[in-house]
Specification:
2 domains, single chain, mainly alpha
């Protein structure tokens, strides 16, 4: 069947109309499917937590507090992702941004992987040479990289579980310290890696760390647990505000 000129085919490898394929129904179906899986997983984990809580001496109120703290703490780190994701909508389209950057991947990794893939094809990410074929290549690079993360998790989790069991047999108190120390070390490495970039990065790092420490001390002094729940989001917003004004100096 011949299509009129006013209704061109959506797929054209040389076309620079990226959104014609980036917002295609197939990608939307994939994105919605992943969202549904995550929702089902969340419900299963929440039910499992409710079942396990009484066996470890955790009250219903403590369980609710932990759920609420987790939900609130997730809001702060999401702000930066949302701002970057909005800027990338015209480059990757809504489904790819929702899945690759909003749910699974890291903003810095995804954009770097896409840029490298585009450069190998002799194109510039988001530039005049960014065609539908290059978009497909960039999306494949991001997806394959993200898949390796999940495969590594699938393989390494059983191994780490064995190590956890072995350490608990030696000294159960060790596993109360190791996860917290690993988390602090991970965030410190990520933060310190940003410091050499500019003095603005130093301001952001120092202000967020200072505000977070102040909020923790305040929560303990006034005995208000809700301050701890909101501390991460408050620290991010205030440090972004301080950094914004610092750039005007």
């Amino acid at each position: 069947m011949h299509l009129p000129a006013t209704f061109p085919t959506a797929a054209d490898s040389n076309s620079t109309d990226i959104l014609a394929v980036a917002n295609s129904p197939i990608l939307w179906a994939c994105a919605i499917g992943i969202f549904l899986v995550i929702i089902v997983q969340s419900v299963i984990y929440m039910k499992a937590a409710k079942i396990a809580a009484p066996h470890i001496g955790m009250s219903h109120e403590e369980l609710r507090t932990s759920f609420r703290a987790g939900a609130i703490s997730a809001l702060g780190p999401s702000l930066a992702v949302v701002m970057v994701a909005i800027a990338l909508l015209t480059v990757f389209g809504t489904p790819a941004v929702l899945v690759r950057i909003g749910l699974i991947g890291s903003v810095s990794y995804e954009t770097a992987a896409a840029a490298i893939a585009a450069n190998t094809a002799g194109a510039e990410l988001g530039g005049p040479t960014y065609t539908q074929a290059v978009f497909g290549l960039a999306l494949a690079a991001m997806s394959l990289g993200g898949a390796m993360w999940m495969i590594a998790t699938l393989v390494l989790t059983p191994l780490l579980k064995k190590g956890d069991s072995a350490l608990r047999k030696v000294n159960p108190a060790i596993m109360m310290v190791v996860p917290g120390a690993a988390m602090v070390a991970a965030f410190m490495v990520l933060g310190i890696g940003e410091l050499p970039k500019s003095w603005i990065h130093v301001v952001a790092f120092a202000s967020s760390a200072g505000i977070m420490a102040l909020l923790m001390v305040m929560a303990k002094r006034v005995n208000k647990p809700w301050i701890k729940e909101w501390a991460l989001g408050i620290a991010i917003i205030l440090s972004l505000t301080i950094t914004h004004f610092a750039t005007r100096l």
